[in-house]
Specification:
The protein has about 450 residues and is α/β, with parallel strands linked by helices. It folds into three domains: about 220 residues, Amidase signature (AS) enzymes (Alpha-Beta Complex), CATH 3.90.1300.10; about 120 residues, no CATH class; about 60 residues, no CATH class. The protein is about 35% helix and about 15% strand. It has an eleven-stranded mixed sheet, with helices on both faces. The longest helix has 24 residues. The chain is globular and about 70 Å long. The structure holds glutamine. The site of glutamine has 13 residues, from loops.
């Protein structure tokens, strides 16, 4: 399913799309809200249906973040990305399921229900943007938006067999994205082709007055087929290949991927990034610290759930205790601990320094090499209920986290199957070399065809 199948679609066709979603979603559970009778705006993409992750605000449409605390929250404004999509003619057909506040890797942390992987209904679609990935992979919509803080677009894309792109930090406005870890969060698209990823990026990227971290850069996404990549160098990171959690079948597919790149005329080099092995530890200090701060606003006073108490403090406690799920509470506790006066230097401050070190190693490598590649996820989709202990879930993020820590662009490119389950490969590039990353993604896509 492609964007071009829908450009110019009329209201009847959109109504049919919505009916189809309602039917298919009985099995998949990708949507938290399906928008009946959606508005079809004018614009170059008029009539193209798109699904939006439920942590991106939509005026007048419930935005839950997969949490009980926002179960009945209806935002009074559109996120910048939503505003831009509507202006271009896209039709928002629904809001997709996710791990609560985007914390998770399987979409099982949703406070409502798990989403099923369209390629095998017994399995998870990955997470945290599992609903968006499943909506595209099942053919309910040609494109969807997700958010990626530690891999939440790329990993579910890999596990469901679609393209998923995390842009350079600062390229897409976060205004209206409910904050998880603000220094890592980016919004990005899911699609069935590089071309459709580029089309959505062209619309949603750019400087925004409402988000001071957006860069004053406008990239030309339409150029992705024109860039000459012959002889460019692609780096493989030794420490990533030695990762003990890497599944043997995924590793074999990666070797095929390397071969494909060589056939395309790229030069492959092995490099070492000695600090990369600290990525997970660093991320799971920095992200929870930002969570403990960002989620303080959900106090039962201003919006969302309220559970009354004898006094103000009791109201806060009861509301937060009833409204947040287990993983969210765990992260708030972790973050509050690492930011506390006695432990700040030992944890938070140290993690910031290590983040800098990891980033510098990556930037250095990307001066000498055009791209860095790896598998996107060390494993294929697990069964629903199979992976529950937090640490084993955190370890799934090994390949995706470095791009968030350093702010570089990274894409998941579907690369065949292993035992009937999709496998995805990751292409990373230098900051603001997003179009180059899409250019290689497109060449791999063509080669796989
Ligand atoms: N799995 C990671 C986490 O739980 C990444 C989530 C994300 O990118 N939103 O934090």
């Amino acid at each position: 399913m492609k964007i071009s199948d829908f450009v110019g679609a009329d209201k009847d066709k959109i109504d049919e799309v919505v009916r189809n979603i309602k039917e298919l979603d009985k099995k998949i559970n990708a949507f938290l809200t399906i928008i009946e009778d959606p508005e079809v705006p004018n614009g170059p993409y008029s009539g193209v249906p798109i699904a939006v992750k439920d942590n991106i605000t939509t005026e007048g449409v419930r935005t839950t973040c997969g949490s009980k605390i926002l179960e009945n929250f209806v935002p009074p404004y559109d996120a910048t990305v939503v505003k831009k999509l509507k202006k271009a003619g896209f039709v928002i057909v629904g809001k997709t399921n996710m791990d609560e506040f985007a914390m998770g890797s399987t979409t099982e942390n949703s406070a409502f229900f798990p989403t099923r992987n369209p390629k095998d209904l017994e399995r998870v679609p990955g997470g945290s943007s599992g609903g968006s990935a499943a909506a595209v992979a099942s053919g309910m919509v040609p494109v969807a938006l997700g958010s990626d803080t530690g891999g939440s677009i790329r990993q579910p894309a890999a596990l469901t067999g679609v393209f998923g792109f995390k842009p350079t930090y600062g390229l897409v406005s976060r205004y209206g994205l409910v904050a998880y870890a603000s220094s890592l969060d980016q919004i990005g698209p899911f699609a069935n082709s590089t071309e459709d990823i580029a089309a959505v990026m062209d619309i949603i990227s750019g400087k925004d007055e409402m988000d001071s971290t957006t860069a004053d850069v406008k990239l030309d996404f339409k150029r992705f087929k024109e860039i000459d990549l012959s002889g460019k160098s692609v780096a493989i990171v030794k420490e990533m290949m030695e990762y003990e959690g890497l599944d043997e079948d995924v590793s074999k597919k990666f070797e095929e991927f390397v071969k494909t790149l060589e056939d395309l005329g790229l030069k492959i080099r092995e490099i070492s990034l000695p600090s990369i092995k600290y990525s997970i530890a660093t991320y799971y200090i920095i992200a929870p610290a930002e969570v403990s701060s960002n989620l303080a606003r959900f106090d039962g006073i201003r919006y969302g759930l309220r559970v009354s108490g004898e006094n103000l403090k009791e109201l806060y406690l009861k509301t937060r205790n009833a409204g947040f799920g287990e993983e969210v509470k765990r992260r708030i506790l972790l973050g509050t601990f690492t930011l506390s006066a006695a432990y700040y230097d030992a944890y938070f401050d140290k993690a910031q320094r290590v983040r800098r070190k990891i980033s510098e190693e990556i930037y250095e490598a990307l001066k000498e090499n055009e791209f860095i590649i790896s598998p996107t996820s060390p494993i294929t989709a697990p069964k629903i209920g199979e992976k529950t202990d937090p640490l084993s879930l955190y370890l799934m993020d090994f390949y995706t986290i470095p791009a968030n820590l350093s702010g570089i662009p990274a894409i998941n490119v579907p690369f065949g199957e292993s035992n009937g389950l999709p496998v995805g490969m990751q292409i990373m590039g230098g900051r603001f070399r997003d179009v180059e990353v899409l250019s290689l993604s497109w060449r791999v896509e063509e080669a796989v065809k």
